[in-house]
Amino acid sequence: MRIVLVGPPGAGKGTQAAYLAKNLSIPHISTGDLFRANISQGTDLGKRARAFMDEGRLVPDEVTIGMAKDRMSQPDALNGFLLDGFPRNVGQAEALDEILRSESVELDAVLDLEVPEDEVVKRIAGRRICRNESAHVFHETYNPPKAEGVCDTCGGELYQRDDDSEETVRTRLEVYHTQTEPIIDYYRAQGLVVTISALGKVTDVTERAMEALKRSEEG
User: Which of 77, 100, 108, 159 could join 1 via S-S bond, C-beta 3.0 to 4.6 A?
Assistant: First the structure.
């Protein structure tokens, strides 16, 4: 299957993408991984992206599109892929259509993970990270540490990242509504959007997603 995964920040896209890609035996292609791979390998696209990032500017669509096109042409992605973080706007969605059309293939589904805005804020703003080890992550509501502000694993101090503050989260949501949400309407017009609730246990959301994708494939 060829799938695009969309949803607001805090919807659990990265987690679901990993599970779904494994269940469907297709590669999980995330924008973050594309950038890191191209920059670390010193590709032309990576160098161009790095130049913009070093200046604190947004990487132009054509660079991101170029990276995605190159990744989708690799052998492991020829029979399907799951895109996470791309396309990010309607221009990128149109470019993706062009790429697929040139290969005589098409998308099977656009999986939209739906989460109420207040829940997104609660999920992200409640996150606390260990200063000693960033992989040690807690949550004030869903996974609180035994002692407030102290990592259960190593005893390090827990803190809230700047980009996890409520104000920043609401700004990120505004960007999502303005730039990314329109691609849902774009794909809905093509009959590709499958919307599921991303509330509940991770395994329940994965199960919901797999069932919805199966229905869309049969339909």
Answer: 108
